[in-house]
Amino acid sequence: MLSHCNTTIPSHQPASLPNKGCIVGMWGAESFCRMGTARVAAFIRCGCHLESRMRACSVGGDAAGLQGQQLWARGKRTVAVLGGAGGIGQPLSLLLKLNPLVSDLRLYDVAGTPGVACDLSHVNTQATVEGYAGDAELEKTLKGCDLIIIPAGVPRKPGMTRDDLFNINAGIVKSLMIGIAKHAPKALVNIISNPVNSTVPIAAEVLKKAGVFDPRRLFGVTTLDVMRARTFYAARMKTPVKDVDLPVIGGHAGITILPLLSQVKPKKNMTEKDIDALTKRIQDGGTEVVQAKAGKGSATLSMAFAGALFAEACIKGLEGEKNVVECAYVKSDVVKGIPFFSSKVQLGPNGIEKILGLGELSAYEQKALEAMKKELLNSITKGIDFVKK
Fold first, then answer.
1. Where would I find the beta strands (DSSP E) of 269-369?
2. How many domains does the chain have?
3. Which domain holds residue 267?
4. What range(s) does the Lactate/malate dehydrogenase C-terminal domain occupy (predicted)?
5. pTM value?
6. Do 52 and 184 belong together in one domain?
7. Of 138, 213, 347, nearest to 203 (Cα)?
8. Pairing of strands 340-348, 324-331
């Protein structure tokens, strides 16, 4: 195990960095977009410490600047990344290290985490970083955690579907969840390991067996689907991506991913061809990346960013921030007969405060919802049966 306290540098606000447009939560999606590439580059160049940014900057005025100071002051959350040495785990851990709401960051994997933790500990932000490796150190990783993120498992390769990953990743998630049930039953758990449509039900069954299942605290991370939906819509309809709000429901694989284009904001005229093409591209986004990387990787960087966004939303909910709403794959009765489903959820101090409805669906979306049900239910059943067998 390695534990590091970072060195604090003097707080300063360089003259080259304008005192507006600064983000309050380091990786809030809309605020990050407002920041702009030039501002991000300036931040990296000057090495401006996050503490000085939080205290000196504001979003549109003194009141928001005060909110930034309050967010900084209450950054006392302990977060663990299980699979922290992997392709998603490493960039995800870097993004969490930069988040002022995180005070203690713990990385766990079968090997390699002490080195990753050492590397990250040199980043001059407030969070301390510890690396743990092997079964014997899982308990130390988990105890006292507020949030646990699981990207552990094998990545997709060309020709593989998420279901092809099941036989390996199902066992990994089950093993980790047994540890969580024993050592951190009150933590929020964000599952990234694919196939999410099955691994979240696996996690739920493990927690049920241990008598500690709280459906408000278990999430399948589908934020990458939302990111892709917003990005692809903005590009196709020629609108700023920072302005796009587009919910994605269902699951996290193929046809179970359903962007609700009828509810997009800002709404633009779309032909049936636009709707069909956008929906298919969003559904096939993971395959697009696997093919583009020619078999040498999957969507690690975008997934890491999506994981960091959802983690921040969970922490803001824990801190009591109001109106924190994200899409996530959770235990739900929104769709009759489908026990796990992704939709908008409102987050709070206990995890899920409210599961929001689907709203009015178009005829196209109603048809797509019906078409996904069998596949989604089969994936859920497969996960449940894996634990029960």
1. 324-331, 340-348, 351-355
2. 3
3. 225-388
4. 222-386
5. 0.83
6. no
7. 213
8. antiparallel
CATH of the domain at 269: 3.90.110.10
| Sign of torsion over alpha carbons 152, 319, 357, 262 | negative
Contacts of 376 (CB under 8 A, 6+ apart): 197, 250, 251, 256, 338, 340, 341
- CATH classification of the domain holding 214: 3.40.50.720
Sequence-distant (≥ 6) Cβ neighbours of residue 308 within 8 angstroms: 27, 92, 95, 96, 99
Residue 354 counted as domain residue: yes
Q: Are residues 299 and 347 in the same domain?
A: yes
Q: Which of 275, 273, 242 is nearest to 260 (CA)?
A: 275
d(CA 185, CA 218) in angstroms, rounded, equals: 10
- Give pLDDT tens digits along the chain (389 positions): 444 333 333 333 333 333 333 333 334 444 444 444 443 444 343 333 444 443 333 334 444 444 445 544 556 899 999 999 999 999 999 999 999 999 999 999 999 999 999 999 999 999 999 999 999 999 999 999 999 999 999 877 777 766 778 989 999 999 999 999 999 999 999 999 999 999 999 999 999 999 999 999 999 999 999 999 999 999 999 999 999 999 999 999 999 999 999 999 999 999 999 999 999 999 999 999 989 999 899 999 999 999 999 999 999 999 999 999 999 999 999 999 999 999 999 999 999 999 999 999 999 999 999 999 999 999 999 999 999 98
To the query of whether residue 252 is one of the catalytic residues in this protein, the response is yes
Tell whether 330 and 231 lie within a shared domain. Answer: yes
In 3D space, the residue among 150, 131, 134, 130 whose CA is nearest the CA of residue 88 turns out to be: 150
Q: How far is CA 297 from the centre of its chain?
A: 19
Domain membership flag for residue 33 = yes
